[in-house]
Amino acid sequence: MTSTTPPPPSRTAPLLSAEGLHVTFPGRHGAAQARAVDGVDLDIRPGEIVALVGESGCGKTTLARSLLGLVPPTAGRVTFAGRPLEYSSRALKAYRRRVQLVLQDPSGSLNPRHTVYDAVAEGLRIHRYAGDERAAVAEALSRAGLRPPERFFLRYPHELSGGQRQRVVIAGALVLEPELIVADEPVASLDASVRGEILALLLRLRTELGLSALVVTHDLGLAWNIADRVAVMYLGRIVETGAVEQVLTAPQHPYTQALLSVLPEAPGDPVVLTGEPPDPSRIPSGCRFHARCQILASGEAERASVADACREQDLPVLAGGGRAQVACHWARVVRTEAVGQVRP
């Protein structure tokens, strides 16, 4: 592995892209199909960390699995380095050498009967690595912060702390020298004292290796600390996206505002959303958030003359690039009025 300084993500072509992505699952006993991912465009550029944020059940893990080639899309496509992803066994094996998954539960990710050495070397053996296996494993462990690496070779997962186990999982991804990692809730199962260390590690890997990452999380605080860009997902679609500072300091979508309002440092009272997210097999008409929307419930949407549109008019799929975007009738009216007020 060679150290490199990546170019600014905004100036480079996407490394990984979802284009019009849909993933549906058959309903039980003749029920309607569940639209887990219901139209998503998303780009991840070289050296960029994108946080995919949303409640449990919003479709973010299904989207991540589809980007990894684990769940073929029902419609749309995934492209990597400008080429559409192919789903033959050979093509997927080559793709997964370049794109690696880091799961949230290191205890479940590691075989308790395998040593740390075997856990990290497993990917090399699957891909028939022709180089010096011991040196590759040692370098991956060292990059993941387990030094000296030889001290960990013969240890078993139960002999490690939670943070050390997560570093072993990360080393297992790094050993294949991927260009992008998909980290699904990478610190959710760790103590607060260890989370910062793992996040700092991911940032250091981006700096040293030019590594890109998609970080799947329900935690907006984590997104603030690690991401360049954030995509907020609700009921199968991205409803707001943009630079992390812009989205998290001036959220436009009512759903993003509600998620941010419950953070400990957030000003004002938390927004308590009523009800549960709708069933993905029965997505409502209009804005898919309108049944729980505090803006609609308070009458603000009515005063902005968009209440009927909120209930009846669907919103377009947001583009996958880096500019700030929001899928909300009310936010678009408010933003248009604000732009008009600052014009001479």
From TrEMBL:
Which residue ranges does the record assign to the ABC transporter domain?
16-260
Q: Domain of life of the organism in this record?
A: Bacteria
Query: Sorted alphabetically, which SUPFAM superfamilies does this protein's record hold?
Result: P-loop containing nucleoside triphosphate hydrolases
Coiled-coil ranges from the UniProt annotation: none
- From its record, what is one biological process in GO terms? transmembrane transport
Name the UniProt key words of this record, in alphabetical order.
ATP-binding, Nucleotide-binding, Transport
Q: Which family does it belong to?
A: Belongs to the ABC transporter superfamily.
Write the protein's name: Peptide ABC transporter ATP-binding protein
Protein's organism: Streptomyces flaveus
